[in-house]
């Protein structure tokens, strides 16, 4: 067996695969997010406990030895640990908005753009640079007590293996990594006022970060590889490796990724350039802050169950009877394909005649428009794969194909876990048939008439967005 571990924002999963890539079983556990006053945090012990629980449950019910395992997980945020690898405080999530003011300040004084021009990463409130700077100002004792500021999967890897603090080039890409040298840019550390905290940054493995499990969750001695984090892991799991090809992940985060060998740091500073295990190869990423989380909020607010979504989409025509949604629901605003910490969601065109179906369809359409904006900015020219929880809705997947105006290669199952295994196999020199492992389960073609209608809707969406950004004081950019 090959096991992939995916430590997501709200769910921890472990999936087992055979040598052909067939999924043998999946175990999942929900983990909590604590939200208050713009702060979004997670209990590290709860997260790690969920990892051990899913691994115990999975390995107990599946026969055969575990040949190797790969680990991936949510990116960004700050996971402070002490010298023993234990939590110093709760993990600060990538969804956290407390550093909003710092990012606004850096946008105004040029720091934001200076960092982007050096690293290709646009800092946002939930990225490690602003969060460390915020903690340095407001909770210096926590940083004093920490020996390392890790990313999620790095914390889990250290506790599973006992390995010293470390990370891989993908997680390190935001916001301190020089994409040319694949090492930390100390000039960026200085720009963000963190030179005196430089020692907290975990050493970067390029690309080998591997160890043997200690016997907690995985059998003792199991070979385990750390990274890449969830976005590039999903790209691997979906077979998106050729320049120009793209992936849309319809998950909590709406992530648009395009494989590239180029490094163009001109244009509006937004998104990031994610380094991969192959030097010279990277992913141009536009990870919008909110994907399925926006729809979840609308469903909860209107009392609609997830199982009703397809029927409501079928009952409401394209255009949602004039209801429109700008889907910027995150407390930290937006980060792709532009950075606007103060931007918030807008619902317009609602009347007493509007139905729950109108609100649901308008939200799904708004998320689709945001995805199209991100994919265009990322430079999509080739095929497009799609994965994530949102693709479990056939009606929403068809709607996305229409809004995007292109065929979608649907990749089902635990795509991030699959990519984690493929990365681990590459690092350990275990040959696997990657084409077979990443074969799409379906191809959804757009309807030409609806695609034309949505092309007009997309233009109107961009116009509304320009006005919304102007109202929040964020200058509309060139994307």
From TrEMBL:
Keyword Secreted: no
Source taxon at top rank: Bacteria
A matching Pfam family: FGGY_N
One Gene Ontology MF term: kinase activity
Domain Carbohydrate kinase FGGY N-terminal: 1-204
SUPFAM superfamilies, alphabetized: Actin-like ATPase domain (SSF53067)
Top EC class for this record: transferase
InterPro entries associated with the record: ATPase_NBD (IPR043129), Carb_kinase_FGGY (IPR000577), FGGY_C (IPR018485), FGGY_Carb_Kinase (IPR050406), FGGY_N (IPR018484)
Protein name in the entry: FGGY-family carbohydrate kinase
An example Gene Ontology biological process: D-xylose metabolic process
Keywords, sorted A to Z: Carbohydrate metabolism, Kinase, Transferase, Xylose metabolism
Protein family membership: Belongs to the FGGY kinase family.
Domain Carbohydrate kinase FGGY C-terminal: 277-425
EC code: 2.7.1.-
